[in-house]
Amino acid sequence: MFKAVIGLSVFFTTQAVMSQGFLQGSEHSVALYTGIAKMQCSSIDGDFRETQFQCRSSRMFPTEGDYFAGPGGIQADQFTLTVVQESGERKATRTLSYEPNLGRSRDRVELWTTSGIQRGLLGLGKNRVQWKMLSRGAKIAEGEFVSTVSRRTQLRCDSREYFSAVTSDCENQFSICEQYFQEVVCN
């Protein structure tokens, strides 16, 4: 009986250690989208402008943000993820809050982003993700896993026309392309 309990304990401990990572898995893919947004702007005083923007974006599947799951039974309040790409060139670090009762991060970790303001944690190819579990700033556990991001085929999106009564809208590619990708069909 004692041997069986020890065997089960080792099995469950091994299972907990092997489960660190993103809840939706370590395999991701990125689709690139391109298309044209045509813009016509006119104002009350008769100014008229016409332009078109070549819009580009990308999206990660199955998700662009995911929860990080730590080892079972760890009473951490924070965790740190440090990512080094296969090439060794790209390195990103995030420290976030951890919910030990849930066994995962409090918030989703931003894995991929197309915003110029923030950079996603992962890059294309193999990403070595080193994790450290912290309790009041002290390291209580650490490990690593690999998360792979592959590229899907590029998708072309239908053209779309927009009209505005504000001439400066014809100069705002970022907001027009953002709206464009929320409304357009890509295939």
Give the helix/strand layout:
Elements: H1 2-18, E1 21-22, E2 27-42, E3 48-61, E4 65-66, E5 68-69, E6 78-85, E7 91-99, E8 104-105, E9 109-110, E10 125-135, E11 138-151, E12 155-156, E13 160-164, H2 173-183
Parallel strand pairs: 2-11, 2-12, 2-13
Antiparallel strand pairs: 1-5, 2-3, 4-9, 6-7, 6-10, 7-8, 10-11
What does this structure look like?
The protein is mainly beta and 187 residues long. The protein has one domain (2-183). It contains two helices and 13 strands. The protein has helices at residues 2-18, 173-183; strands at residues 21-22, 27-42, 48-61, 65-66, 68-69, 78-85, 91-99, 104-105, 109-110, 125-135, 138-151, 155-156, 160-164. Strands 2, 3, 6, 7, 8, 10, 11, 12 and 13 form a nine-stranded mixed sheet that branches. The longest helix is centred in the first third of the chain and has 17 residues, at 2-18. The radius of gyration is 23 Å and the shape is elongated. The N and C termini lie far apart (60 Å). Mean pLDDT is 86; it is low at 1-18.
What amount of the residues lies in strands?
Answer: over 45%
Please give the largest β-sheet: 9 strands, mixed
Number of beta-strand segments: 13
Overall geometry comes to elongated
Radius of gyration from the alpha-carbon trace, in angstroms: 23 Å
Cα-to-Cα separation, first versus last residue:
60 Å
Helix and strand content put the structural class at: mainly beta
Helix proportion? 10-25%
Q: What are the segments in which pLDDT stays under 50 over at least 5 consecutive residues? A: 1-18
Mean pLDDT: 86
Q: In the residues, how many domains can be counted?
A: 1
Number of helices: 2
Order of helices and strands: HEEEEEEEEEEEEEH
